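Q: What does the assembly look like in three dimensions?
Context provided by user:
Components: two
Sequences:
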Amino acid sequence: MLTDFNFRIIMEYLPLFLTGLKSTFLISIVSLLLALATGIIACAGRISSFKYLKYPAIAYIEVIRSTPLLVQIYFLYFGLPTLGLRIPEIQTGILALMLNSGAYIAEIIRAGISSVDEGQLEAGVSSGLNYFQRMRFIILPQALGVTVPPLLGQAIVLVKDSSLLSLISVMELTRCGQTMTSERFMPSEAFFTVAFFYMCIYFVLKALADWSQKKLIFREAY
Amino acid sequence: MMAFYFSRLVEIYPFFLKGLWMTSKIAFISLITCTLLGFVLGIFRSGKNPILKWIIGVYVSFVRGTPFVVQIFIIFFILPDWGIQLEAFPAALLAMAIMGSAFICEIVAGGINSISKGQWEAAASSGLSLIQQLRLVIIPQAMKVILPPLVGQYVLLIKDTSVVSVIGVMELTRVGWVTVVRIPEGLMVFSLVGILYFSISYPLILLSNYLERKMAL
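A: Here is the predicted structure of the complete assembly.
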């Protein structure tokens, strides 16, 4: 039971956990930025009327959304070498996270853009604004309030999803727990510590998401 | 070489069907338990008892704040320390039930909270008991808010069953993982696995989209 919870061993392994935390953090940030770019491109394809852009974008989004991330990770991990591409596990993992989150982010952005009333767009056109000006001054300021909170939600999902990279032996937080379990066989200490660190990240991001929701919804009132 | 591996893959397709069956079984059982548990928890979460609300809140944050793999490891490796020995399959179901019910609880609580106070007051002044108020007045209206995200959550839960492969449950992802050792064509093997997942979850995604459009009206 928890009465013989060994804090000394956690202190001993703390440096390992901190490196794990750092690499989870870095993996998440890098994948999030790449996913954001992927999402914007996929969303632009999804809403364009040019069919050679539209249908590939739809296919990408739907395929990603209806298969598990773990299968996507294994697909790249076992599949890329057969194509002659040998890249380190961590890059394979980031690629998988980027492609996965990119599809969800594309849908989030699309929901944000379609939440802006069509009349707003027409008003922009008849004021003589060009495409970029309409985006910059009319659509995006309004769409941001609907987009940023779910994007932060996706960031939370992404951090948790990065734990699956432990299964292709990327040395991140969950993998540190596995390492400690196999070296000392103390699974309680290992995985409760891992869970604790994930909870810390979760609460920070959650607070940020709640705060942004309040701030940005308020902006709509102008 | 590719054609050779392809014919090998065709030979062992019953193995994949077995995996699909296992995945469907886990998904089906856990969707039902998650829904039942989620509704009960969600009703208490939106209720008045502050202690119960707080306890459920802590439970939900713990589940939402940690990755599913870590939860599975905790259940599978730590419960034996406390004298509860579980096989992989029941451990997987337990993990799914704990994880899914927390997410569904939040959806249900959100739906119930979206119903205006006047509805509760009207139901109470018609002389309905608390359970009748919920069953006849509140839940049917809340369903409109609950249903689209609930079906979306079902899709996520079905996909999350792939993670239970880490404790050795022979479901679809595990089958792919075992196969790829013998047939080293990662793209082919995991495309097949992906197609089989797609065949279960895509219909549900379409249903979720349909419900979202319908309920928005």
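Follow-up: Residues 8-219 of chain A form a domain with the MetI-like fold fold (CATH 1.10.3720.10).
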